[in-house]
Amino acid sequence: MAYPQLKYLRRLLRVDDKLYLVITFMLLLSFHSGLGEPCKFDLDHPCICKTQNFQLNLESFMKARGGADLQATGENDQYIYYVQPCNRKLSTQLQSCITVNPDLVSCQVDANTKQQAYGLGVLHKYEVTRDQDNFILTNSFIQQSDMINRTLHLTVKCSDQDGEFTYQGSNKPPSPVIYKFTLATRHICAGAKNEGGLSPGSVMVIIFFVLLIVYILGGLLFQKFIRKAQGVEIIPNYVFWKDFPFLVKDGFVFTFQCCKGSSGYDKI
């Protein structure tokens, strides 16, 4: 039995294999460029996070706090959250957190009993991204008791405040559950240091346009001098680009008809 939707899949996939690989590769690169960079912490300076492009210095802030964990309450005071933004263990030595994992850098604890705890991040797993003057630290931990991935999302902002740490809320399961916090402090204003160079996203954009230019120029030369093409036929993969708008249309039709059920195929 022939399924009508296969016809649309064939049309959507009717593209030169090499071009398909290039498009897939660029999509993967663009996805990766949105990820954070691993924090590189020096053993002697665990509160200085370095990447290839910038530096986040929390030493003066944490020194002013005596190294104490950040604390905030959430969910109508049902939970207390402990966060250690440096690459070291929680200074809050709650047995419930230690039982979950002794290397936690963030822990969610039941405010009433202090017995139930969940990990939000662990040592050596911090990643950081920079958004103008703000920094976003992320970490994650999979709780063995329920196999839920809980993720710490800490935004560090330059502010005239000494250090205000607040809980911003979380999404609901299924996994991963992202817990968002904000740290506003004047200490980060002096501790934020740009190391120069291009960000990973900028590098990916440059690579994309270089490959695009190589594809267009190389394709034009190949069509003109190797295949002896004339007119619009010298455009690389001319048939594909000519049909591209119709392929996009077919993709939308296919998607919407699938959502409506098999009865919609007759209309296609």
Structure description:
This is Cation-dependent mannose-6-phosphate receptor. Keywords: Glycoprotein, Membrane, Transmembrane, Transmembrane helix. The chain crosses the membrane at residues 203-222. This protein is of the alpha+beta class. It folds into two domains: 4-32 and 200-264, no CATH class; 37-194, Mannose-6-phosphate receptor binding domain (Cation-dependent Mannose-6-phosphate Receptor, Chain A, Distorted Sandwich), CATH 2.70.130.10. The protein is built from seven helices and 14 strands. The strands form three sheets. Strands 1-9-10-11-13-12 form a six-stranded mixed beta sheet. A four-stranded antiparallel beta sheet has the order 2-3-4-14. β10 (134-142) and β11 form a beta hairpin. The protein is elongated. Mean pLDDT is 81; it is low at 1-10 and 12-34.
CATH class of the largest domain: Mainly Beta
Order of helices and strands: HHEEEEHEEHEEEEEEEHEHH
Q: What share of residues are in beta strands?
A: 25-35%
What is the rounded Rg?
26 Å
**Which stretches are low in confidence, meaning pLDDT under 50 for 5 or more residues running?**
1-10, 12-34
Quantity of strands, as a count? 14
Domains (count): 2
In the CATH hierarchy, the architecture of the largest domain is Distorted Sandwich
How is the quaternary structure best described? Answer: single chain
> Residue-averaged pLDDT, rounded?
81
Q: Roughly how many Å apart are the termini?
A: 17 Å
Determine the CATH superfamily of the largest domain.
Mannose-6-phosphate receptor binding domain
Give the helix proportion (percent range).
25-40%
What structural class do you assign from the helix and strand content?
Answer: alpha+beta
Looking across the biggest beta sheet, what order are the strands in?
Answer: 1-9-10-11-13-12
**Looking at CATH, which topology of the largest domain would you report?**
Cation-dependent Mannose-6-phosphate Receptor, Chain A
**How many H/I helices?**
7
Approximate shape? elongated
Q: Main sheet, how many strands, which sense, barrel? A: 6 strands, mixed
Organism: Candidula unifasciata
Protein name: Cation-dependent mannose-6-phosphate receptor
Pfam family, one: Man-6-P_recep
Keywords: Glycoprotein, Membrane, Transmembrane, Transmembrane helix
